[in-house]
Amino acid sequence: MHIPPFDNKNKPIVDIEDKKVPLNYFNIVKLNKDQSFEYLTPGYETCIVPATGTINIDIEGMKVENLGNRTIDVWDGEPEGAYVPSGTKASFVALKNSEVFIAGAKYEQTLEPFAVRSNEIDFVQYGSDDTKTHRKIKHILGAKHHDKVGRLLCNELYTVGQGGWSGFPPHKHDTDRLPDETRHDETYNYRFRPNNGFGFQLFQQVNEKIGKAEHIVDGSTISIRTGYHPCVVAPGYEMYYFTILGGLSQRSLVQYFQPEHAYQVETIPGIKDMIAKYK
User: Fold this and answer.
1) pTM confidence score
2) pLDDT tens for residues 10-45?
3) Mind listing the pLDDT tens digit for each residue in 142-181?
4) What angle do CA 106, 224, 162 make, to 5 degrees?
5) Spatial separation of the C-alpha atoms in residues 210 and 235, rounded to whole Å
6) Which residues contact 262 (CB under 8 A, 6 or more apart)?
7) Residue 188 CB neighbour total at 10 angstroms
8) H/E element, 275
9) I want to staple 12 with a disulfide (CB 3.0 to 4.6 A). Which of 27, 51, 118, 227 is the partner?
10) How far is residue 235 from each of residues 163, 165, 269, measured CA to CA in Å?
11) Could you give the CA distance from residue 134 to residue 160 in angstroms, rounded to a whole number?
12) Percent of the chain having pLDDT more than 90?
């Protein structure tokens, strides 16, 4: 599902118990300096990630100060995040004009809050210019935090250079059938550099010979419940997407690659290392 950019007025773009992706939660909060925001998501653990700006956070008494170091856009520095346990009230105040992502996954148990600083981000770079799959992933809540988080995976994905494919080979994760696949709902928010860039998000169900494509632009949100879902950015533009994954029965993601294209897992440099990080 494609949700074109709009002024969400700091209200969830993907709310709790969403009909399309009930395992996900997503909000974008825009604040001017000294403005504040407070939220509570019963039954969902969340991660607060400044896209730009700097914030101070209070998670029911746990203080996280000076989170976020990017000013211009998501290419301007490394991400930081703060984990907010399920059913826990969080508030934050902007120390400068800020745009803040809130990612969430359905999970009932209440764990402990913690911060993830830029020097704790787990980096993965894979693919190649030759295969048109060169990209970089910055895991905010990835394998490093497996024992501290319930079901939520959260990362930022960048194409390296201009043009190229992502989410390739085509894969899906819509059915719990271990060891071959897990059910993970997924939500993206796209950005482009320059910001007049664009791309296409493909959706192809298992029983479809020909899928459907959506024209994505700066600020587009995509929610994915079923099917294969690669995407591509136009030549001359760089692409970024903020990624939220919420698992139904476990946190670790198991992707099922479309059989007719799965052989390319063996030909794309570093892709197996990338797969291993979604734990």
Assistant:
1) 0.96
2) 999 999 999 999 999 999 999 999 999 999 999 999
3) 989 999 999 999 999 999 888 899 999 999 999 999 999 9
4) 120
5) 24
6) 169
7) 23
8) helix 271-276
9) 27
10) 4, 11, 21
11) 5
12) 89
